[in-house]
Amino acid sequence: MAVPCVRVPREEGEATRQRLAEAGLVSEDYEIEVAEGSLYIPVTDASAVDEGLTVVSRAVDAREGQTMPADLVEDPSYERVGDVVVIDEDDPDRAQRVADAVVESDLPVDAVLNRASKVKGQERVRDWEVLAGEGTETLHREYGCEYVVDLAEAFFSPRLATERHRVAEQVTSGEQAFDMFAGVGPFVVPFAKRGATVVGVDVNAEAIEYLRENARRNGVEERVTAICGDVREVAPDYEGWADRVVMNLPHSADEFLDTAVSLAGDDTVVHYYDIQHEDDPFGPGERAIRAAAEPDYEVTVETRRVVRSYAPHEENVCLDVRLTRV
To answer: Whole-model pTM?
Structure first.
């Protein structure tokens, strides 16, 4: 059957495969194929692949010697966070069939969870139905970093791995970076690994404890300050401090723009995440940023990027915006 594959020149194949594997995007259900000088690497989520890579639909062979969920149930859809498999099924019978197929397959799995609610509340957690195994904590790896996370206690999305890596690659040693909604540290840790001094703030106390553990696990605890609290109350201690600010709270980041501007130094990049209608995905965010920053700062939008489709006719987008003090 045809599946999404990243196509790269054969000589770039191994480096690309490793890069996709670190992001958790290489499909274990299908074989990697070589044809006409190109390598075709099957991926689990085409929307999460770096926009610099070419994704095509191609018929490739199912992986031999392993039983995969697709061999046992029709069209299973799932994500992996470490050794936990996450599904999103409304029909309880269908959910259990998918979970049983995952467990019976050769995937290395400790638990199967079904989403039982949307992300909710200030602490950005959701309810889960445990369909197989025990517990909701796991160790997840992406792009050379390790994260311990309890999915019932803190928000974490493996689908954003490529986006996090894109932003982290912009960080240089010696920077001062501030993540306003840090969670368990998937921006903070790679920033610190690239030599930045990073402050991560979150209202979720459990997430902050995991952030501290993840900083220790990745050997960057000396460059990371993790603070539990409302970022609006923390920000006065870091006024004018940041060279880079991350605002990954897409439903309501606009409510915190005044705080982000207060954190900015003379030349600061803000990574602003938003969810808007496809007819004008970037305009509302850009207008809100200008209203908050001008006339004290010159506002330059350096990147307008669709991260992924969020819902029908809605896009999850990122604006990379440079604020230059006037």
So the answer is: 0.82
